[in-house]
């Protein structure tokens, strides 16, 4: 049998029960990775479906539950993931939240929620795995940021700035750990057809406007995003670190 690039490796994916995270889990399983799919406990039913789908295709998938914004929960689910998989080779920080409000109307608690999940969550899960990656002399981290973190969008000041912070964090962590054999990159999706993405087009006119914004004239789908994530996790990306790659059908160009 031709070896697959994930054979013998394990990936931990947060927010994996649906949308982009689910598609990433299915793609990594198809590439031979042992998948540890993580989500918040309220998503148990959907996460179990992801596990079922992977097992039906003879892949390996374990589940862990927790809250990426809670340091104790992160320590617990990362330890569980390591016990289940033996070791983690790739971390995909995908869990995220979005809400819409003008700056005048963003409640301080809602501002904190965006940063707690999107930014602090990414930091905490990275931090919890760094020692193991250093010990192994290798590790791959892929943070799912957003083109919103580069260009911003009205009604999303809290979300977009939290994603800009994820991009900044990616640049810095990449430099801190490069000599330990660890790469850290970000993928910046455009507007992708998921529960979260649909906040950007709640009617036909808004959907058309979203399509018109892209050079390709169409919406993105979760499967459009997974190739970039798999690439950053692979040996093909061994000399690439600290980058933030737009996967947006041509909305922004730098
Ligand atoms: P999604 O469908 O809303 O899925 C996100 C998942 O993360 C959900 O299962 C969610 O659970 C989970 N989650 C939320 N808070 C969590 C926490 N504290 N701990 C663990 N899991 C948590 O979103 P998506 O569209 O697939 O987005 C995935 C990633 O891509 C996010 O980081 C998002 O910001 C980014 N992104 C998406 C788009 C887009 O257009 N869709 C564009 C750019 C970037 P609950 O729903 O129960 O909270």
UniProtKB/TrEMBL annotation:
SUPFAM superfamilies: NAD(P)-binding Rossmann-fold domains (SSF51735). PROSITE patterns: ADH_SHORT (PS00061). It comes from the Bacteria. Residues 9-194 form the Ketoreductase domain. GO terms for biological process: monocarboxylic acid metabolic process. InterPro entries: KR_dom, NAD(P)-bd_dom_sf, Sc_DH/Rdtase_CS, SDR, SDR_fam. Belongs to the short-chain dehydrogenases/reductases (SDR) family. PANTHER family: 3-OXOACYL-(ACYL-CARRIER-PROTEIN) REDUCTASE, 3-OXOACYL-[ACYL-CARRIER-PROTEIN] REDUCTASE FABG. This is SDR family NAD(P)-dependent oxidoreductase. It comes from Kaistia nematophila.
């Amino acid at each position: 049998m031709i070896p697959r690039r994930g054979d013998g490796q394990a990936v931990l994916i947060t927010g994996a029960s649906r949308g982009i995270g689910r598609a990433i889990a299915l793609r990594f399983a198809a590439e031979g990775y042992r998948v540890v799919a993580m989500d918040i406990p309220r998503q148990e039913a959907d996460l179990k479906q992801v596990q079922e789908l992977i097992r039906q295709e003879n892949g390996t998938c374990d589940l862990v539950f927790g809250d990426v914004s809670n340091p104790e929960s992160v320590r617990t689910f990362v330890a569980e993931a390591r016990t289940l998989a033996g070791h983690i080779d790739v971390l995909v920080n995908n869990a995220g939240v979005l809400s819409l409000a003008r700056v005048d109307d963003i409640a301080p608690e809602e501002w904190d929620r965006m940063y707690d999940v999107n930014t602090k969550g990414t930091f905490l899960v990275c931090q919890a795995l760094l020692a193991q990656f250093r010990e192994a002399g290798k590790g791959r981290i892929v943070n799912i940021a957003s083109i919103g973190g580069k260009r911003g969008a009205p009604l999303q000041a809290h979300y977009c700035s939290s994603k800009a912070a994820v991009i900044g964090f990616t640049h810095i962590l990449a430099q801190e750990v490069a000599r330990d054999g660890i790469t850290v990159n970000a993928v910046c999706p455009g507007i992708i057809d998921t529960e979260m993405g649909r906040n950007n087009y709640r009617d036909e006119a808004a959907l058309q406007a979203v399509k018109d914004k892209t050079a390709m004239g169409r919406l993105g789908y979760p499967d459009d995003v997974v190739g970039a994530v798999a690439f950053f996790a692979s040996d093909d990306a061994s000399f690439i670190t600290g980058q933030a790659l737009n996967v947006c059908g041509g909305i922004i160009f730098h």
